[in-house]
Amino acid sequence: MTFNSLTFGIFFAIVYALYLCLRAHHRMQNLLLLLASYTFYASWDPRFLTLLILSTLFAYVCALLIDGAKTPRQRKYFLYLSVIVNLSVLGFFKYFNFFAGNVDTLLRVLGIRAESLYLDIVLPLGISFYTFQKMSYTIDVFRKEIKPTRNLLDFALFASFFPQLVAGPIERAKNLLPQVLQPRQLTLEKFYEGCFLIFWGIFQKAFVADNLAMIVNYVYAGSAPFNGLDIYIATFAFTFQIYCDFAGYSNIARGLAKVLGFELMLNFNLPFFASNIQDYWNRWHISLSTWLRDYLYIPLFRWLRNVRGNLRIFIALMVTMTLIGLWHGAAWRFVAFGMYYGMLLSIYVVIRLKCANWVKPQSRLGQQAWLWARIVFVFHLVMIGMLIFRAPRLPIALQMLEAVIFNFHISGDVIYMVPKIIYFTWVLIAAEALQYYKQDLMCIYKSNVAFKTAFYLICYFLLTLQGVANQHEFIYFQF
Fold first, then answer.
1. How far apart are the C-alpha atoms of 401 and 394, rounded to whole Å?
2. What DSSP assignment string belongs to 64-83?
């Protein structure tokens, strides 16, 4: 049951109607949303609903034990127990076969015959997201930044709220849990804002992402020798595809939550307008990057206090970004993806002050030109990361990068691809350019009636004309 399906539309309409009927009964609303969340999750694979419930109960109990512990040592014990169990479960389902496969390969290289360790494991939907969300809750309780809730129903709703359950944003208890505990204020303004976010998210997914996917899949399914220009254009398309796929999901999730009276955190903030690589990660998948910053990078940086100079920053950055890559999937290309960004961020730490001194345009025109040059440069750095991310395997990614550098020529595919990419992205680019200029992601919603009407009609026309209606799953469901 995906957000872009008729089945989900009917499901949400029924849930919302009942939710409104229970407007005066906050506890009953929470119970309804919890049942709806479990129904939504079970629609994918009911076998893993038990895992979701057990992990919720475990986090709930661990938080209470941490809060009730009489000594700091006991508090640490229960925190370590929580973290180890959560990461063990995540590691088994997501990474066991990856490591088992690499062990098998190593043994064969060494000439050792052994029975394969591979297991037929199905990855539970959204396990990376809800595991991190519950881990942050127990860590925050340990840090005494929040008090644990003793109402199991409320905590279960926080841990499984269906708009953001399977692909984020990865919510913090400090933001979402108080909204669960208190009655929500339902207003027409929130309803209209939520509807705008849902509509824009569906457009991003069904018109931009799913149409670009056809171009991307065609090129990336090819085999060597690769044409560098084809790879370049397909990677450009994939950069917009994955952005619209994931940002579209996040916008729909935020819109559904807003209609229900909840405010979810912003997960994307115009990432392709980033002027440096650090700025990019402050704008892209914000809930994950801030999670790893607060719960991994900063503690690791403090732990490395005996390491002097920039080396301390480099180690913390490389570990954090490598784990960001591994979080995305159990494959060496994801490890390389994370290490690539770790190196870029490390380089940026060294040169950021020097860069500021190298180029100092005095005129307003020169300053704008320098800004846009940096934005274009960062976008191309991101594209390299996207190529590594999208390639079937790491060796193929390296072959594609080689082709972009040494085998760059015009082919018939270029004439086919470029007009289509422009057609599928022009509304998105125009809308985001306006949002960037206004410094307001809701500027279209806040604009005058005539402009808003024209925008809605254009998007609706394009969706009806060429929107993909076969309910493609969102890319980040596999993570």
1. 11
2. HHHHH-SSHHHHHHHHHHHH
265-311 pLDDT per residue, tens? 999 999 999 999 999 999 999 999 999 999 999 999 988 888 887 88
CA-wise closest residue to 164 among 468, 474, 462: 474
Using pLDDT thresholds of 50, 70 and 90, give the confidence band for residue 114.
low
Please count the structural domains in the chain. 2
Instruction: Supply φ then ψ for residue 164, to 5 degrees.
Output: -120, 15
> What is the model's pTM?
0.91
Is the distance from CB of 9 to CB of 133 less than 8 angstroms?
Answer: no
- Are 133 and 204 members of one domain? no
Which residues are catalytically annotated?
A: 328
> Cis peptide leading into 169, omega within 30 of 0?
yes
Report the alpha-carbon distance of residue 217 to residue 249 in Å, rounded.
Answer: 20
Please give the pLDDT value at position 375. Answer: 94
Please indicate, yes or no, whether residues 119 and 258 belong to a single structural domain of this protein: no
Last residue of a domain, one of 124, 151, 184: 184
15: Cβ–Cβ under 8 A, 6 or more apart, which residues?
32, 33, 36
Chosen domain end from 124, 154, 184: 184
Q: What is the DSSP string of 301-313?
A: HHHTTTS-THHHH
- Pair 118, 93 in one domain: yes
